[in-house]
Each structure stands twice: as C-alpha cells, then as structure tokens.
Amino acid sequence: MAGPDGGAVARPASPPGPLAPGVCALCPLAGRGRLGAGRRVADSPQAPGAACPPAAGATRLDQRAGAPAGYGREKKAGAQAVGRSRGGNTTKLHLTTDGAGNVLGWQLTPGPAGDCPEAAGLLAPWPAPAQQVVADAAYDSDALRAQIAAAGAVAVIKPNPRRKHMPHFDPLAYAQRHHIEQTINKLKHFRRVATRYDKLDSSYNAFVALRVSTSYLN
C-alpha cells in the first residue's frame, strides 16, 4: 500500500501458518552453546511447533557437549627439569658409566641445579660395587666421599680448590674420567638429546633412553 507522502509502506506481517507435515522447526540453543534436548529430524510427522525428538538410538551422552580437543593428554605440571641459567632455559643430564663408558644411570635436573646432590641417587642402584668412583670437582663433598667409602670403593674426586684440608688425589686414576666425557659426546650426536625440543621431561627422558639403548647395540 502507499503512504500519505506517496512512499511505499510494507503491510503488517501475517502470523505464520502451520508447518507442513514432516517438517520440524529448528530447536533453540541452550545455555553455554549446547544443543537442546531435541534435534531436527526430517520426514517425521508431528504436531506443528512441537519440540524435535531425539535421534533414533541417541542417548543422553550423545546430546552433551563433546570433550575439548586434547582431552586425556598428559599435562605439563611443575618445572619439567627446565631452569633458567646463563644460557637461557636449560636441562642438565647427570650420568654414571662403567669403566668402558657404558651408561649405568642418568638423571634430569634443571640447568642451575647442583651436581653433587644428584650423585647419591645415581650411585645407589649400581648392580655391583665399583673399585673406584671418578668424578670432577663439582662432586667433591664429604658426604659423597663417605658414601663411596661405605660401598667399599675409592673416591677419585678432584678436590675443590676452596677446601681447607685437601684429601688424597690420584691424577693418573682421574685421567680415566675421559670415558664418561666420550659417552656424553656420543649422546650429543643425537639431536633430540643435544637440543631439547620437548616440553615434558618424560618425553625428553624417553629420547635419552632410546639413545642409550642404541649405544649398547652399537
């Protein structure tokens, strides 16, 4: 129809008519983005305006919101053996080897962590007592020397220069420490060990175990 000034005016909308048989109205969304209890089902005759029935064979679990992506994965918690040092975020790998350079055990710690506190745990699970335990000055402590002596071995540890009383030191026996240095160098040939790319310490530890296993095969 035309208005008083000659412009076009739309007529009032008429109320919607009944839906055709077999056509279902869309169901409103419930709170928090979840679908309501009903669903749109084609070719199912019902009364106009009625709620859509659930799909055939659907359960209450089918009508709930799905789990978010990544649900069930291992979560990152704690420091994950990463600490900030002079070179940035780093991880330190502590090793024990036998006289031939075969790895007997290892432990991951954050980069700034001290070396000596980890030695006690690494020496405890050895299958057989050693005759000598060779370590550098970072492992020089009276407690560690006492633990080695109690196990029936001789501590060949380079004394810390700040010690007041210098213990006996055998430089010829200390030269055997090159075996563990060579072992560390071989491990670093494996890129995933030399540079850590893993967020979780369990993932990085698995790559260390893989490299140690392959070193025994070679």
UniProtKB/TrEMBL annotation:
InterPro entries: Transposase_11. GO terms for biological process: DNA transposition. Signal peptide: none annotated. GO terms for molecular function: DNA binding; transposase activity. Residues 38-90 are annotated as: Disordered. It comes from the Bacteria. Residues 78-210 form the Transposase IS4-like domain. Residues 45-58 have a biased composition (Low complexity). NCBIfam families: transpos_IS5_3 (NF033580). This is IS5 family transposase. It comes from Hymenobacter edaphi.
